[in-house]
Amino acid sequence: MKKIWFLFILFFPAGLFAQDTLEINISGIRNAKGEILLQLYDSQHNLTGQAKGKPVDGKCIIRLGNIKPGRYAVRYFHDENLSGKLEINLIGIPKEGFGYSNNAAAVIGPPSFDKWLFDLNGNKKLELKITYL
Question: So where are the chain's domains?
C-alpha cells in the first residue's frame, strides 16, 4: 500500500494544485497621500480579490498570492482622501488617479473589459502607469 501512495504522489500532476502570484507595480503616482485600492476580476468579470498598498516615491507594489491559473483583469485607483471610492467631479470625470491592467486607456468612459484581460499561467508581474485627468 505504501508503494501505491508513493507512486501516486510521485506521478500525480502537481499542476492541479498550482497557485500563482501576481505582482502589480504601479508608477506615476503624484503624491504619497492615501492608498491605492485594487480589484482583481476573473474572465467572467466576477470580483475575485481586493488589495491595497501605500504609495512611496511615486510607486506602489501590490502582491496577490494563491491565484489559480486563468484569465484575469485588474482595475485600481489612488484613494487620496481615504474615502474608499473614486472621487468624480459634477460631470463624472475622476478627480483621483486610476488605471486598468494592460494599461488599457479610458476614452470617454472606462475601456471595454476585454482590453483589461491578461493570462496568468505562473508567477506574473504587471507594470502599470496610473492616469490622472
Answer: 17-129
Q: What is the CATH number of domain 17-129?
A: 2.60.40.10
Query: The whole model's pTM is what?
Result: 0.85
Distance CA 99, CA 130 (A): 5
Residue with cell 475601456: 111
Cell reading at 110: 472606462
Write out the chain's pLDDT in tens, 133 residues. Answer: 554 444 444 444 444 556 899 999 999 999 999 999 999 999 999 999 999 999 999 999 999 999 999 999 999 999 999 999 999 999 999 999 999 999 999 988 899 999 999 999 999 999 999 999 9
